[in-house]
Amino acid sequence: MRVVIQRVSEASVAIEGKITSEIKTGFLILLGIEHEDSQEDINWLCGKISRLRVFSDDTGAMNLSILDIKGELLVVSQFTLHASTKKGNRPSFIKAARPEVAIPHYEAFVDQLKRTTQLRVQTGTFGAMMEIALVNDGPVTIFIDSKNKE
């Protein structure tokens, strides 16, 4: 399971020109799910995300977590995070989980993130063509892969 986390001052998802989800200060999380992912990956990532200290304290140092600032989260499914570009110029998405695996994992991730953080969690729409708008604060962008825990 892979995530790209962007610290944002605002973010939204629109489908066919209509905003379906939006947040203010917090994280936009792009979530890529692969075939081998499990509940263990979900639990580990949600814990890591909730404790990630990338928000500024009174001195300007990145010492605060999403929990400390009581921020918001927006989770968007992003199968292209598992693109392989080793051969040729057209990415292969063979490692990305098929919808029958990815949808339950996506929903479990969102549920676990809600339980772990007790914060407002918004979502994109799985499989939809979405327009993501964001103001990256910093910019701060973090990539985490649950297969690289050490």
Automatic annotation (TrEMBL):
GO terms for molecular function: D-tyrosyl-tRNA(Tyr) deacylase activity; Gly-tRNA(Ala) deacylase activity; Ser(Gly)-tRNA(Ala) hydrolase activity; tRNA binding. SUPFAM superfamilies: DTD-like (SSF69500). One of its GO terms (cellular component) is cytoplasm. InterPro entries: Daa-tRNA_deacyls_DTD, DTD-like_sf. The keyword Transport does not apply. It is found in: Cytoplasm. One of its GO terms (biological process) is D-amino acid catabolic process. Its EC number is 3.1.1.96, 3.1.1.-. A motif (Gly-cisPro motif, important for rejection of L-amino acids) lies at residues 138-139. Keywords: Cytoplasm, Hydrolase, RNA-binding, tRNA-binding. Belongs to the DTD family. A Gly-cisPro motif from one monomer fits into the active site of the other monomer to allow specific chiral rejection of L-amino acids. This is D-aminoacyl-tRNA deacylase. The gene is dtd.
